């Protein structure tokens, strides 16, 4: 079973009743004849009508149709539901769905509608056109963003403790916001780059016996 199908099944199986109900409503909105199967004739108009143009094609339908029956079963549609709701990205080089590890431009990473992401193949082969050159994979970014955010939270707590010691009242929240605004996006990514540089240095120091 494809990894995304496994993830979608896991989410649905462990979801609360309201979330499962949302999934069923999504399925029913595509299943026009209510026969509990989604045909390509039902799938394509729905996807185009709702703006999911990169998934509105037969190859993507066939990817979802893991059972190879020519019609999507309920759990296969739940994979589609998961892909849409989770905001899964598509490669900006080849337009393929990014199913696992991918590379993101760190200069564009936190721009809501302007992120630039590449599959491993397009990144390795430089099969893309983009003005920036700083890319990191999604796992490195996630782990190092967690470190950067934890450090920022620690600074906020120290600042609030200092204020409390000096008798400053009700200033914690507002000053936390000030601190957040003072810390630029580049300072967060500086932590990421430093971690990568450290790892690269450690790797280059290794020797094969």
TrEMBL record:
UniProt keyword list: Calcium, Metal-binding, Zinc, Zinc-finger
EF-hand domain residues: 18-53
InterPro entries per record: EF-hand-dom_pair, EF_Hand_1_Ca_BS, EF_hand_dom, Znf_ZZ_sf
Keyword Zinc: yes
Gene Ontology terms for molecular function: calcium ion binding; zinc ion binding
Protein name as annotated: EF-hand domain-containing protein
Organism name: Populus deltoides (Eastern poplar)
């Amino acid at each position: 079973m494809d990894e995304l199908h496994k993830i979608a099944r896991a989410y649905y199986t462990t979801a609360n009743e309201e979330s499962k109900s949302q999934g069923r409503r999504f399925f029913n909105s595509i299943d026009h004849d209510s026969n509990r199967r989604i045909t390509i004739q039902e799938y394509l108009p729905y996807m185009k009508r709702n703006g999911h143009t990169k998934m509105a094609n037969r190859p993507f339908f066939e990817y979802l149709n893991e059972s190879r029956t020519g019609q999507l079963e309920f759990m296969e549609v739940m994979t589609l539901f998961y892909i849409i709701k989770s905001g899964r990205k598509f490669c900006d080089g080849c337009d393929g769905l990014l199913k696992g590890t991918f590379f993101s431009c760190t200069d564009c990473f936190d721009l809501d509608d302007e992120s630039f992401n590449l599959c491993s193949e397009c990144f390795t082969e430089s099969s893309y056109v983009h003005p920036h050159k700083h890319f990191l994979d999604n796992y490195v970014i996630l782990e190092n963003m967690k470190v950067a955010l934890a450090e920022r939270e620690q600074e906020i707590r120290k600042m609030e403790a200092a204020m409390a010691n000096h008798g400053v009242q009700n200033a914690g929240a507002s000053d936390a916001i000030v601190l957040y605004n003072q810390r630029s996006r580049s300072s967060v990514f500086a932590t990421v780059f430093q971690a990568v540089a450290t790892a690269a240095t450690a790797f280059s120091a290794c020797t094969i016996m």
